[in-house]
Amino acid sequence: MTVISLLRLDSPADFADWYRVGAEYVLTVSEGMGFETGTFEADFREATNAMRDGDTDLRPELARSVAADLLADAVFSDPFCEWMPLWYELALAPFVQAADYRLRRVAREYATGLDHVSVPRFSRPRDVYVDGRSALAHVDGFVDQFVFADALLHLEWYDHVARESGIDVPRSLVERTRRETVDYYTGRREGLSEDVRRFQELLFADDVWVRDIDDAYGLDSALFGVWERILRDERRRLAAMAPKSE
């Protein structure tokens, strides 16, 4: 099977593992940073089981988490691809559009009955300027572009989904992480402050997200393998930057 086989996913039950893997990522980052997660772990497991049964009538806090996760995934890839070389963006465009449609369609089933649920807006190259030019102008090479795009967008993804799932993410940390991330990956600073470095190390655990999606859906995807390797290497590099204990 390949990544294209994901386009067969159509129902809430099909997306149960998709939501589960995203929720586990949110939990990993939140616990790693010491954020209060309340009942989130029990809640997302309850939501996952309900999705497997095809149940869309969830408690509002569960429905909001599911809808937020799926909507964030629906709109993640298009802006991400804008940070990448044109050949990559064009190659993935049909898949991105189809995935957006399917994720939104299932998300709407869980958004029904909620007072509101927002679709996040992820940064594109035209939104981030460094020295008067797009930040992308300061990043060369496929891997560096991929890592920079992910460092910025997975922060935005996590912040949105965690908050919609009832986890209080410190706004000041998110804002500072964004500033330092842009400066660091565009060569304007040599390192990251320790809490930002730790935050990004945990956020780069999205290599586990990629691997778990690949495993859950039996993809054995070469493309997912490339993504996982790039993300894992950056996570390990950030981990190696941690201060050495005495």
Strand elements, count:
2
Strand order of the largest sheet: 1-2
The structure class reads mainly alpha
Q: Helix coverage percent of residues?
A: 55-70%
Shape: globular
Order of secondary-structure elements = HHHHHEEHHHHH
Instruction: Name the beta content range.
Output: under 5%
Question: Mean pLDDT across all residues, rounded?
Answer: 95
Secondary structure tally, helices:
10
**Strand count, sense and closure of the main sheet?**
2 strands, antiparallel
- Uncertain spans: none
If you compute it from the alpha carbons, what radius of gyration comes out, rounded to the nearest whole angstrom?
Answer: 18 Å
Number of domains: 1
What is the rounded distance between the termini?
48 Å
Oligomer state of the chains in this structure: single chain
